[in-house]
Structures are given as C-alpha cells and as structure tokens.
Write a structure and sequence with these properties.
The chain is mostly helical and 72 residues long. It contains 4 helices and no strands. The two termini are 33 Å apart.
Length: 72
Amino acid sequence: MTLPDEELNALKRTRELLRFLLQSNLTTIRKEARSIKERAGRCLKHYPWDLYLDKMWEGRIKEHNRSIRGEE
C-alpha cells in the first residue's frame, strides 16, 4: 500500500526527472539511459493512480471556486 507522503514524493521525483531530461543533451541521456530508466521506475512505483489524481484535481477545483467566491 502506498502512503500519501510516498505519492507526493513520487510526484516530486517525477518533476525532477523531467527537468533533468529537459536540461540534458542527447549524448548525456544516451550515456545515462540505464540510470534514467531506473529513476523512472522509482518514480512510478508510488505514483498516484488516475483515480487519486482525479480526486485531488476535483478537490483543487472546489478549493479554487471557494477562494474566488471569498469563502473560507
């Protein structure tokens, strides 16, 4: 069972991996392909399922709508 903090860490690690890929050139990516693949696997191990992402998104939308209306 994946805990909420593990899911959050997985999201953060995934963002870091994507930033690394964007900042790297193809030569670096080719040289580190095995390491990148292992990092991707660790990111996905506790990555939230679509169901949980949908629920989080719905909560964010409700929170946003309340803030627009000035509700606390």
